[in-house]
Amino acid sequence: MRALLSTASGGPDTLELTELPDPQPAKGQVRVAVKACAINYPDVLIIEDKYQFKPPRPFAPGGEIAGVIDALGEGVGDWQVGDRVMGVIGHGGLATSIVTEPQRLYRLPAERDFAEGAALILTYATTIHALLDRGRLQAGQSLLVLGAAGGVGLAAIELGKAYGARVVAAVSSEEKAAAATAAGADETIVYGRAPFDKEASKALAERFKAAGGRGGFDVIYDPVGGDYAEPALRAIGWEGRYLVVGFPAGIPKLPLNLTLLKSCDVCGVFWGAFAARDPQANAAHVARLFELWRDGKIAPKVTETFPLERGGDAIAKMAARGAIGKLVVAVG
User: pTM of the prediction?
Assistant: First the structure.
């Protein structure tokens, strides 16, 4: 098999395209011929040893895949060779073949292609958990989405609208604003690039407050962090929920007096741990996502594909926060 391996800590330029023997599934495992692998921000972090999990090297990044089962380990009864699958595997997806536990996989609908399948679970499962479990989003409430043109941002817009919220999308360019509007955002805000001085931070907070109206935002979805966090928090409403999803712009330091004044919650969102701790609740969310996907209320936006040998370019684009929607590597 071919694999794009991380052999040393560093950026995408350290990845090496390598030929390896095909892996063999152990008892209870399946082997998947990988056809597509979506790139997500954890892929940027994991090769730099900055992610929560540090797999032993060498390893292939890429935690979200779609493909075809081509071998079964002993004792696997619910799957067959030839089944089309999609799933989240943690890492290893930038390789033409992987072995994994079948419970990490879902059946890819016949009408969906591999790129779509690879681009669905991680962003949408994270977001439905964030909005419903942590954000307690209700129909008629208001939702501010930062970084709204990225994979999780567009997912938040679509799911926010599917559950009846008014959605304001905050992005860094007019092109991204157009993508957010196409996904269903009711209003867009184009902000500048951080870092912000005190006056710029205050000005952005005023723009967020104007968009949130007199009552402020009920839920704020923040997969960006950095200097964008405090201005957004200042626009939260009474007993609002601020959802901490990620930090590509840096880890912010929030003034906690704001949480007292607004009686609001700052809620961490760690979908991977949630899925492991409460697999039944996660399975219910994923089943709902498949229904919304079938009904056309959500749809992964794959905006660019890369061949395996250019998988590092996809990770570099993600690191530079230049992606709109999902980036996918065509592996097989």
Answer: 0.94
